[in-house]
Amino acid sequence: MACTLKLIPMMREASTTFEKLDLDCGVALSPVEVAYETYGALNAEKTNAILVLHAFSGDAHAGGEGGWWENMIGPGKAFDTHQYFVICSNVLGGCRGTTGPSSINPETGCPWAMSFPAITIADMVRLQKMLIDQLGIARLLAVVGGSMGGMQALEWAVTYPEQVAAALPIAATARHSAQQIAFNEVGRQAIMADPDWNGGNYYGGKPPARGLAVARMVGHITYMSDQSMREKFGRRLRAPDQFEVESYLQYRGSKFVDRFDANSYLYITRAMDSFDLTQRGALPSLFEGIRTRFLVISFTSDWLYPSYQSLEIVSALRSRNCDVAYCNLTSHYGHDAFLVEVEEQTELLRGFLASTFREASRKA
Amino acid sequence: MACTLKLIPMMREASTTFEKLDLDCGVALSPVEVAYETYGALNAEKTNAILVLHAFSGDAHAGGEGGWWENMIGPGKAFDTHQYFVICSNVLGGCRGTTGPSSINPETGCPWAMSFPAITIADMVRLQKMLIDQLGIARLLAVVGGSMGGMQALEWAVTYPEQVAAALPIAATARHSAQQIAFNEVGRQAIMADPDWNGGNYYGGKPPARGLAVARMVGHITYMSDQSMREKFGRRLRAPDQFEVESYLQYRGSKFVDRFDANSYLYITRAMDSFDLTQRGALPSLFEGIRTRFLVISFTSDWLYPSYQSLEIVSALRSRNCDVAYCNLTSHYGHDAFLVEVEEQTELLRGFLASTFREASRKA
Fold it and tell me: Which domains, and CATH codes, for chain B?
């Protein structure tokens, strides 16, 4: 384990290795490395731990400088590191320190590439549970995340309800719609259409940069709203023959290649698409008897994870008298809102976490 | 000119060549061939001609078996061929008989490819005007089209208001938004990322089939709505590891390659993106004094060409006391609705065309 201090007091970068992880597909992955970061300090009672779950292209670096949720994690912020112990780990299948298709298969000494086993959201969560156990945390104060992070939060609540005081799925869904699958499939096809992808065997050579960039461009459009794109770019030109929005997307596409692995793109989007809580039963029956508190958040202009998907979860929870608060926040940032709308989310989260903490402390 | 008879009585396939077309970019294209079809018969007064304008991936084959608007054109249909003379030509830059990047540049004896000059929606309409003049039609009863066809209808009305009794822009816009440009740009990048594109020089060799297929997949998602995709595909599987929506998009993508030219994709989407009526003045000022009647149609679930874009046109027309009817049809088919919602459109169009015809005949 490596420890470093950064901007947030008590920020810590670490990694740990587990001997084995049993996957839904039947394969046992061994060994499995997990990269994670923590912010703040675990209290003596171990009742103040919040597990933050990242979205598709995120990583363990949630808080601190350049963290994908740096405005939400830190002293005095929504996830107040004076009060809470915040943990974020890179997901299984990722390419930022946790075992994934770019990791070395110990049996061959070569990267797994497409021989990496199929993974699910439940596999990701099972690995996170092992990490939480290792950290000696019997019960999390909260699991929280946006987009794919929210799907993991739901998985946590359904699979380990006794280990989660509160679940906060933000801009999430209990299962991908045909449209969500379709956009992911375009990304996958763009990657696999790139000859440099080479059946996934590009490590040590030229990665499928063009295909991955096209995939990322599609993603970025779906993360924004019609209105936010109009306000940000309009029809402004960057060059006589190039609109600003084109140059922006090309730039974001090409930058993505530097930090993301194309095979991770394939595996993680596949995990998202295959996620479907209702395969285990109707949603209300899954929530039956769960004492976890829920705060479900969606955003009015999010057309990729539309509000009706959050409402489906809320209705199911309400039908079983679960403790659930729901907020459809007004925003024109589209799906990106969960990263951008800091103030409104902070207001909502602060009170909810505080009351959950009071209640959890009383019970502990 | 070649003439053939098909299912619609008086259906005619033809092509004609013009010596020269002056383009907006300053280049004069010479010669220019135009492929077109006509349905029904031109009356003696030449007052019953309707110019149907196709969308991005359409062609001159609008009516008759397999025509993209076959349910709308024919005896007793919305565009009743017992009464009207319907014309549809393949657009400039196309690949279905009209001069485009796949045509031979007479100066080199080779396909134009990317040396084809930049084209605009106004260029397409200028060429259509030459065809209409050649057919001896002084004034069209109507210009009508959906999507890019609607943009051409608007261009006709603004540029040749005296030659158009009625204009029917359906699911269209006076200018592309950043989001519309962005989706087109993804398609272009997917094509150009394919090594088989080879700078546009693939004629006689392998076309950029994978890139063009990915571009088409993105297109198809934007043509449908979240709801229509949910109803058509849901999360149904086609194979253990493949959702039906994935297989559908892959199939549609690969089929597109058989009938569409990748360079035409680049040139025509560029023409759509650069189209902006407001560059010539505020919309209301462009409609000042126009006596053309308008029927503007949009669809509630069309998120690619949202209703607000049609409303912008309607408001501008109303502000100048132009004759305009507007209908935001309830449909869950998304942008595809203009091809699918036959009954409701037929009802609207039939009365509108009949009254326009009565009025136009009285004036003639």
Answer: 12-175+275-363 (3.40.50.1820), 179-273 (1.10.1740.110)
